[in-house]
């Protein structure tokens, strides 16, 4: 009877109430003076670029629902690190200082750009990663902690990218003293013994190298012991999550470590797991930059930290084929899962896709792909499965540039009629012209 109850889709209901916020020009006319977020009003300015498709998500807290795949995965990781303090429910509104400066991001880091992150105004943004809370949690004196939260990044639209996703940060702090290092050694011996008894093959890289240097203020032996503790702790987490599951049955779990770079850790690593015939990037981690601990007022310590994306891992473990499904309110999705259990998603029917191409002349002031993607998301919600720029050319005489985007419309829970898809596309086209002054071809 669900079908009978469903209201026929009206493209207008997705129209944002502050649509001009999509306009990224320095002066943005028609922007409302304030926007309401999580029960409070915030002033807008020329940096404001958050859309209503995003603000609607701020209070969903999917990762806190015990029987939602994201909540289940969160609890499985929390169960693994059972002696860590599990933190959650922290507001996604942070200052750019917290998200970037405190962690040593350079002034010109691309993540800071309006095209890459969502700003409420120049002094307030949506966190782009859970590392934004490192200083605050360290300053509380937490020695072993996990923090789960929703994070936001402007990005492309396809089956594995969504502008809102979830991360889990984890960290462990040791006193930089002989007693602290004895604690690390003891833990390393315990974890090594556990891993030696397990069906796991690890491809490692040196804890420290010329390309993955230690920190000048660190005792080299301390840094090596802590990096080893990080690797052993995460190899053991990988075993809990991926070991002995279908696709790896009988075969040892393969984990590989790769040197990486993050402004707030060194040495830094990425972890990949071989699953269903492919290497999958699972998380980033490293030895925390001393300036983070100093800023948090816990200077005489040494720490490791990691950050993992919950969607990516949940899509693999639960066999969820499209990232939009996490946001589905369809009982055929939601009733499949039970608290504490990783089970395989049984797809209900996949409805037919319908492509529409939109071609236009780009205004002289330019237009970023992410502005187009956000406008599509804001206009048609999750009915856009993916959006790709499929063609671009510059006219030899007028020097104007034309672009063509292909929008693939498909609903997760019903069939869209051609008429409805045409309406959706017409709404996108008219808003593109309105918000960015593009000339439709
Ligand atoms: N914050 C990083 C990201 O979002 C991940 C990370 C966390 C890396 C902690 C190192 C330490 O990609």
TrEMBL record:
<feature type="domain" description="Aminoacyl-transfer RNA synthetases class-II family profile">
    <location>
        <begin position="73"/>
        <end position="347"/>
    </location>
</feature>
<feature type="domain" description="FDX-ACB">
    <location>
        <begin position="349"/>
        <end position="441"/>
    </location>
</feature>
<keyword id="KW-0648">Protein biosynthesis</keyword>
<dbReference type="InterPro" id="IPR005121">
    <property type="entry name" value="Fdx_antiC-bd"/>
</dbReference>
<keyword id="KW-0030">Aminoacyl-tRNA synthetase</keyword>
<dbReference type="InterPro" id="IPR006195">
    <property type="entry name" value="aa-tRNA-synth_II"/>
</dbReference>
<dbReference type="Pfam" id="PF01409">
    <property type="entry name" value="tRNA-synt_2d"/>
</dbReference>
<keyword id="KW-0809">Transit peptide</keyword>
<dbReference type="Pfam" id="PF03147">
    <property type="entry name" value="FDX-ACB"/>
</dbReference>
<dbReference type="GO" id="GO:0004826">
    <property type="term" value="F:phenylalanine-tRNA ligase activity"/>
</dbReference>
<dbReference type="InterPro" id="IPR045864">
    <property type="entry name" value="aa-tRNA-synth_II/BPL/LPL"/>
</dbReference>
<comment type="function">
    <text>Is responsible for the charging of tRNA(Phe) with phenylalanine in mitochondrial translation.</text>
</comment>
<keyword id="KW-0436">Ligase</keyword>
<dbReference type="GO" id="GO:0006432">
    <property type="term" value="P:phenylalanyl-tRNA aminoacylation"/>
</dbReference>
<protein>
    <recommendedName>
        <fullName>Phenylalanine--tRNA ligase, mitochondrial</fullName>
        <ecNumber>6.1.1.20</ecNumber>
    </recommendedName>
</protein>
<dbReference type="InterPro" id="IPR036690">
    <property type="entry name" value="Fdx_antiC-bd_sf"/>
</dbReference>
<dbReference type="InterPro" id="IPR002319">
    <property type="entry name" value="Phenylalanyl-tRNA_Synthase"/>
</dbReference>
<dbReference type="GO" id="GO:0005759">
    <property type="term" value="C:mitochondrial matrix"/>
</dbReference>
<keyword id="KW-0067">ATP-binding</keyword>
<keyword id="KW-0547">Nucleotide-binding</keyword>
<dbReference type="InterPro" id="IPR004530">
    <property type="entry name" value="Phe-tRNA-synth_IIc_mito"/>
</dbReference>
<dbReference type="GO" id="GO:0005524">
    <property type="term" value="F:ATP binding"/>
</dbReference>
<dbReference type="GO" id="GO:0000049">
    <property type="term" value="F:tRNA binding"/>
</dbReference>
<keyword id="KW-0496">Mitochondrion</keyword>
<comment type="similarity">
    <text>Belongs to the class-II aminoacyl-tRNA synthetase family.</text>
</comment>
């Amino acid at each position: 009877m669900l079908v009978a109850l469903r209201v026929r889709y009206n493209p207008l209901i997705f129209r944002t109430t502050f649509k001009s916020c999509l306009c990224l020009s320095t002066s943005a006319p028609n922007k409302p003076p304030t926007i309401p977020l999580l029960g409070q009003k915030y002033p807008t300015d020329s940096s404001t670029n958050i859309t209503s498709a995003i603000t609607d998500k701020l209070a969903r807290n999917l990762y806190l629902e015990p029987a939602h795949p994201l909540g289940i995965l969160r609890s499985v990781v929390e169960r693994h690190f059972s002696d860590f303090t599990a933190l959650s429910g922290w507001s996604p509104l942070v200052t750019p200082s917290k998200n970037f400066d405190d962690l040593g991001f350079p002034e010109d880091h691309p993540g800071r750009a309006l095209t890459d992150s969502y700003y409420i105004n120049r002094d307030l943004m949506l966190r782009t990663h859970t590392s934004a809370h490192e200083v605050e949690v360290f300053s509380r004196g937490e020695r072993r902690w996990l923090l789960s939260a929703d994070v936001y990044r402007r990005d492309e639209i396809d089956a594995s990218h969504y502008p809102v996703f979830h991360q889990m940060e984890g960290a462990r702090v040791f006193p930089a003293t002989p007693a602290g290092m004895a604690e690390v050694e003891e833990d390393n011996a315990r974890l090594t013994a556990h891993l030696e008894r397990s069906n796991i093959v690890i491809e490692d890289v040196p804890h420290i190298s010329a390309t993955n240097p230690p920190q000048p203020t660190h005792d080299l032996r301390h840094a090596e012991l802590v990096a080893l503790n990080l690797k052993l702790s995460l190899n053991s987490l990988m075993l809990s999550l991926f070991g002995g599951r279908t696709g790896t049955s009988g075969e040892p779990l393969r984990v590989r470590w790769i040197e990486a770079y993050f402004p707030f850790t060194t040495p830094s690593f990425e972890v990949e797991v071989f699953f269903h015939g492919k290497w999958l990037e699972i998380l980033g981690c490293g030895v925390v930059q001393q300036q983070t601990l100093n800023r948090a007022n816990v200077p005489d310590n040494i720490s490791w930290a990691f950050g993992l994306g919950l969607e990516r891992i949940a899509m693999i473990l639960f066999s969820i084929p499209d990232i939009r499904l996490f946001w589905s309110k369809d009982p055929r999705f939601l009733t499949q899962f039970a608290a504490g259990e990783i089970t395989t998603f049984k797809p209900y029917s996949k409805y037919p896709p319908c492509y529409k191409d939109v071609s236009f002349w780009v205004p002289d002031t330019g237009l970023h792909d992410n502005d187009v993607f956000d406008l599509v998301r804001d206009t048609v919600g999750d009915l856009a499965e993916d959006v790709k720029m499929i063609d671009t050319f510059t006219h030899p005489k007028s020097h104007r540039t034309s672009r063509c985007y292909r929008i693939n419309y498909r609903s997760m829970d019903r069939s869209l009629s051609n008429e409805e898809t045409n309406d959706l596309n017409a709404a996108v086209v008219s808003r593109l012209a309105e918000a960015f002054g593009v000339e439709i071809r």
